[in-house]
Automatic annotation (TrEMBL):
UniProt xrefs under Pfam families: ACOX, ACOX_C_alpha1, Acyl-CoA_ox_N
Keyword vocabulary terms for this entry: ATP-binding, FAD, Fatty acid metabolism, Flavoprotein, Lipid metabolism, Nucleotide-binding, Oxidoreductase, Peroxisome
The protein's annotated pathway: Lipid metabolism; peroxisomal fatty acid beta-oxidation
Lineage: Eukaryota, Metazoa, Spiralia, Lophotrochozoa, Mollusca
Cofactor(s) the protein needs: FAD
Signal peptide (UniProt feature, chain positions): none
Domain Acyl-CoA oxidase C-terminal: 479-657
Protein name (Swiss-Prot/TrEMBL): Acyl-coenzyme A oxidase
Domain of life: Eukaryota
Active site: E427 (proton acceptor)
Length: 670
């Protein structure tokens, strides 16, 4: 990044760093070559006049955002083709820079439609659809959620009834609540979609299955007969994406359009069930596994913005007549921002782990070995929920830490927030996902009680709970991990005990589940938190990190662990695991860690290696020239392009001069 024009405050911050930023940046991305390649690809976007001439996203109406989103996405796609980039990670680096936090109207096509064909279609189906989809003749999405049901997939109402006479499925939306509602890129962009519908054949229902459905003409994009489709209207964010509704009026599609890799309907209507019904949920598991990194990136970017800004912003003389300190020197600012910085590192590392696990398990599934599916489901569902919640709440804190300017779109923070926060809902509502993880933990608990060996990341379950913490003034990483293990093990047991006592008291299984669900949620959250702490501790043992970097990252990791305990103290203290004295160690350690991290705070956010174009923020600029940038942003606002705004003639003039009238005044007289 260019050192030109960097403000003295930021230049001094960088010169104080005690570790090599490049060493940490290489580690976080996975090596020097990858970092170089990322920078190369992102520089292409940064230099490209096409992106430079785009109007600021924040000054666009929703329709303009969609228009801009589509034109950018198509341009990006063509550029990727021109550059011969097929690797998903490389394409991501380029896209991340070219259209940062602008949810692409083609996003569902490459994130869900293509992967679903790849994973759920037969070789013949792939041969037919993939060339068309890869070349954007077929543009598709994933249409599962309905007006009435999102979470409960088995409750979906869209039907696909097989007619052996014509060898067709009849797709139908029998009720208002059966209309598909929310799928991205559906309202105006897609001409196809994978539709999740209840399969009926030979008079029997077989649950939700996937069907390839053409909804628009590939010649002129007109909506095909038997289909009603449109956008769902404005949302909290996602202006670039045409999330849509869709319904079918007894639409007939060929039998071959059922995605038949795992389950089949023969010509005569005979149903062949899959090896495991949950294989049909594979696309959701893929996306959940990648959302953890998405959320972590959003939080990391918010930390870059708020920490750089806090190093530039000065406020309130420390003593009468004294210099105004950088707001980053206020302990309360550090208390809000440094734990989030630590959390951003932890979640990025967790994101890497879960995605690699997805790839490994997926490899096994491809070979027909489904043994690890439950673990992957529990890990990806829980971490998706934990990470999106932590990141969304954290981004909002970062925004508030920027004072008034944080509220401006110029800060870039609102755009990041509205892009990350729907991750709490899509691909499985967070509480529901936590409860899926809890379901797995309950099974593990009963297996542990029967003396069975558990897989690696749940081996702590069922451990002896009559222990005391080994925590001393020094706050060793090992003692932190032990504390998180104890808390998770205790909460898993408490949830299991509660379930058991409700059942023994005469409640039915589902009543006992609901009556224990708050405790089950706590247990799952504690489990995910433990995972993040332990994974962080393990990750910083990497050989590629220099000793100076390890020293700094050890402090960051300690802060992550210590802060998490202090924020959830009741759960760690309820059974007397920690003494009051030990809590004192932790409190003092947290404050000491703030001082420890302070000289490296800017270097630590630099190591995330986000160019200004990704941040899209006047406050988070690498050069720290925030005031000029804010002023330029204000000057560029469309409302500043005329001296007198048209509303003066419509409304103000008649108010100031009552001889003239306006619509509003007329209305008031009535
Ligand atoms: C880019 C953004 C675009 C957004 C796109 C979208 O949002 S698209 C829309 C996204 N929409 C959503 O994400 C909707 C969220 N909803 C769901 O995913 C499901 O309805 C559910 C998981 C909540 C329940 O499912 P259910 O009622 O069918 O199941 P059940 O509770 O009866 O449990 C039966 C057993 O199955 C197990 N099992 C479940 N899933 C998996 C799996 N993937 N793998 C392996 N296993 C799995 C479960 O643990 C249990 O095991 P046990 O204990 O018996 O051994
Ligand atoms: C931006 C965005 C993009 C989306 N894109 C797509 C897409 O491309 N394709 C698609 O098919 N869908 C998409 N969706 C829909 C999304 O997947 C669903 O909204 C999501 O799965 C949640 O389902 P729901 O809306 O039915 O929530 P609900 O299930 O109605 O949740 C409402 C509340 O009820 C609670 N609740 C529900 N069930 C339980 C339970 N069993 N136990 C305890 N509490 C429960 C939840 O915790 C929540 O608090 C998108 C949604 C958004 C916001």
């Amino acid at each position: 990044m260019s050192q030109e024009n960097v403000t003295p405050d930021l230049a001094r911050e960088r010169s104080k760093a005690t570790f090599d930023v490049e060493n940490l940046a290489e580690f976080m991305i996975g090596g020097r070559d990858r970092l170089k390649r990322k920078r190369f690809l992102q520089n292409i976007a940064i230099q490209d006049p096409f992106f430079k001439k785009q109007k600021s996203w924040s000054f666009c109406s929703v329709e303009e955002q969609y228009d801009m989103g589509l034109s950018k996405s198509i341009y990006i796609q063509k550029k990727l083709q021109e550059m011969g980039i097929t690797d998903m990670q490389e394409a991501f680096y380029y896209r991340e820079c070219a259209a940062a936090h602008e949810n692409s109207p083609l996003g569902l096509h490459y994130a869900m439609f293509l992967p679903t064909i790849n994973k759920q279609a037969t070789p013949e189906q792939k041969k037919k659809w993939l060339p068309l989809a890869e070349n954007y003749k077929m543009i598709g999405t994933y249409a599962q959620t309905e007006l009435g049901h999102g979470t409960f997939i088995r409750g979906l109402e869209t039907t696909a009834t097989y007619d052996p006479k014509t060898k067709e499925f009849i797709l139908d939306s029998p009720t208002l609540t059966s209309k598909k509602y929310w799928p991205g890129c559906l309202g105006k962009t897609s001409n196809h979609c994978v539709v999740m519908a209840q399969l009926y054949t030979q008079g029997k229902s077989h649950g939700p299955h996937m069907f390839m459905v053409q909804i628009r003409s590939m010649e002129d994009h007109s909506v095909l007969p038997g289909i009603e489709v449109g956008v769902i209207g404005n949302k909290f964010g996602y202006g670039t994406n045409d999330n849509g509704f869709l319904s079918f009026d007894k639409l007939r599609i060929p039998r071959e359009n059922m995605l038949m890799r795992y389950s089949q309907v023969h010509e005569d209507g005979t149903y062949v069930k899959p090896q495991n019904a949950k294989l049909a949920y594979g696309s959701m598991v893929l996306i959940r596994s990648s959302i953890v990194s998405d959320a972590a990136r959003g939080l990391a970017q918010a930390c870059v913005i708020s920490i750089r800004y806090s190093a530039v912003r000065r406020q309130t003389e420390a003593y009468p007549g004294g210099e105004e300190p950088q707001i980053l020197d206020y302990q309360t600012q550090q208390y809000r921002l440094f734990p989030l910085l630590a959390s951003a590192y932890s979640l990025q590392l967790a994101g890497k782990y879960v995605f690699n696990t997805y790839l490994e398990v997926n490899d096994q599934i491809e070979k027909g070995n489904l043994e690890s599916m439950p673990e992957l489901h529990a890990l990806s569902a829980g971490l998706k929920a934990f990470s999106t919640y932590e990141a969304s709440a954290g981004i909002e804190v970062c925004r508030i830490c920027c004072g008034g300017h944080g509220y401006s779109q110029a800060s870039g923070l609102p755009k990041i927030y509205v892009d990350v926060v729907p991750g709490c809902t899509y691909e499985g509502e967070n509480t529901v996902m936590m409860l899926q993880t809890a379901r797995y933990l309950m099974k593990c608990y009963s297996r542990a009680k029967q003396g069975q060996k558990l897989p690696g990341f749940v081996q702590y379950i069922g451990q002896n709970l009559n222990k005391k913490s080994c925590m001393s003034e020094e706050v060793a990483l090992g003692c932190l991990v032990m504390a998180y293990e104890h808390r998770a093990a205790r909460l898993v047991e408490a949830a299991a005990m509660r379930m058991q006592s409700l059942i023994q008291g005469g409640k039915k299984q589902h009543e006992a589940w609901n009556g224990s669900s708050v405790q089950l949620f706590w247990a799952a959250k504690a489990h995910c938190h433990l995972f993040c702490v332990k994974n962080f501790v393990d990750a910083i043992q990497a050989k590629s990190l220099s000793s100076k970097t390890v020293t700094v990252m050890k402090s960051v990791c300690q802060l992550y662990g210590v802060h998490g305990i202090l924020e959830n103290l009741g759960e760690f203290m309820q059974d007397g695991f920690f003494s009051g004295e030990q809590v004192g160690y932790l409190q003092r350690k947290m404050l000491a860690l703030f001082e420890n991290i302070r000289p490296n705070a800017v270097a630590l956010v630099d190591a995330f290696d986000y160019p200004d174009m990704v941040l899209g923020s006047c406050l988070g600029r690498y050069d720290g020239q925030v005031y000029q940038a804010l002023y330029d942003y204000a000057k560029s606002a469309p409302m500043n392009q005329t001296e007198i705004h048209s509303t003066y003639y419509k409304h103000l003039k008649p108010l100031i001069n009552p001889e003239t009238t306006s619509d509003a005044m007329q209305f008031a007289k009535l």
